[in-house]
Write the structure tokens for this entry.
Amino acid sequence: MKPHALASAVALLTTLPAWSADQNTQTLEEIVISSSRIAMPLREVGTSISVIDAGEIRARGFHSLQDILRSQPSVAVSNNGGPGKVSSLRIRGEEAYRTRMLIDGIDISDTSAPQVGPRVEQLLSSGVQRVEILRGPQGLMYGADAGGVVNISTRAPGEGFGGDLSAETGRYGSRQLAANIGGGSATLDGALSLADYRSDGFNSRITDTTPADDDGYDNTTVHARGGWNVSEQLRLELVARDVDGENAYDSCFTNDTFAPSNRCSDSFSQQSWRAAASFRGEQLQHELAYSYNKTERQYFTEGLPGFGTEGTLDRVSYLGSYAPADSLQLVYGVDHEEQTLDDGTFDTERDQTGVYLEYQGRIGDKLYFTAGGRYDDNEDFGSHDSYRVSAAYLVPVGAGELKFKGAWSTGFRAPSLYEIAYNNSFFAFPPAAGTMLQEERSEGLDLGVGWYGPTGLVLEAILFEQTVEQEIYFDLVGYSGYLQGSGDSDSSGVELIAELPLPLQLSLQGNYTYNDTDTAAGGHRVYRPRHLANVGLQWQALSTPLALGLHLRASRDARESDGSAIDSYEVLDLNARYTLAAGFEVYGRIENLLDEDYQEIPTYRTSARAAYAGLRYSF
């Protein structure tokens, strides 16, 4: 696609008129929980949140959840060569490890990694019901850094019995078998999600000519949740999750002679669980929870085990709220977590305790505002304060509403256990050796305006600016260890979002992000596209069992570490679903329909045109 074609597609989002429709949009009444960790209608929220529901997840059909997440504003993904390969999900240009990711309340951060963060390449989409993405620094409620929070919910159990079974196959020897079942009564309920994914993959790296083989990936994920409604006010819930991944990749070194090799593989295992008790009164709400997350990774070269590592994350939390009046609510909580890391060389641990309070108020039905603070005590880096203030103001205009919103927030990230241990080990040498790393501090500002029409029309524009102070980075020049910048790295830009109902049962959605990122030294931050765009066109007629979707994803003006440009690209995907009979559905998709030859990271391949088809039975 030529540059003017992309510009035309983006311009289309802001120039097409709204068409009448029978349904009345309820966008502002949609309930979200990520902003303040309690249920709130979107009209009262001043922060920036995007929501992906079950219908969109099923329609897109991607095996990997990261390919669904990248359709949202300001979300970019760079992948090292196919399914299961190391991936980085960046929100508003921030590093992946600066984003907190939760699944049914479990923090799935990998504490065995050099930087603690989620392993998004290990997340399958099967069983996921809903995703909320909260953008910007979120130190107040989560103790999170500048990237934000991705809150994932699996299919919730309910009364009765139901679920779905599916089987899918496609290019690169890919196949997936999945089952999602659940049920219960007014007292007891439970749900179970099983997914087994296999792919032969493709040769992940262009530089691999010996043996120039395919690099496959296997993933088995089991996720279960159950609950007991002890009374109308008291509920007990248990969530358990197990992920096992086996991955082949290129470019490693032998364990004895350290010779280069392309016969590389790794195994990933993560077991986690969470137990919670929640009380819902008229004015008071309480939740007490404990979660545990253990991650193990092992690397192999030419079949022989090499580097291995293990990490755990224990977390105890209390979340409460008090609403003495319609115009006042207090949200407060305490959390304590312990991280451990053991890779055979480094064996270390650290505790952190946080306390937070947020005031939520309103004036009439137009102005909503919040103000809160958090105090963290880190075992290695002492105390730190985080803050957030936000506001939303709604004005009726014609048959719709105009919403103005704004938020200012801060966060921080303590150096990881690995970063500290590495600089204090014999691996490091000057200038990194012995360097006393300090915590990174982040700050972000959002200002936005949105129009919400009565027929489903949504138009939003958001300006954002955020900084990370004293950014920690690995020395890629001298390879001495981890260094720390003395200035601020910046990320600023604009997000444009549109949803348009069209005639003939068509609907159009799209978003465009302009993101200007700079390092503390004034250079461009690597692999961050300056321009991101997503456009989706769906057709679903009530009188036919067929549904179709066409989705365009475009990226422009990303840079390599040496400052050179990475080629821009546009990827078009097509998906379709057809109901054969009650409960039976055949579905398929063509990824990279136009067979675009592109790279997200130089020398690493991406998928060529690939077709997939499957059968699903829902009951």
The longest strand covers residues 304-325. Confidence is low (pLDDT under 50) at residues 1-25. Helices lie at 3-15, 54-60, 65-69, 139-142, 417-423.
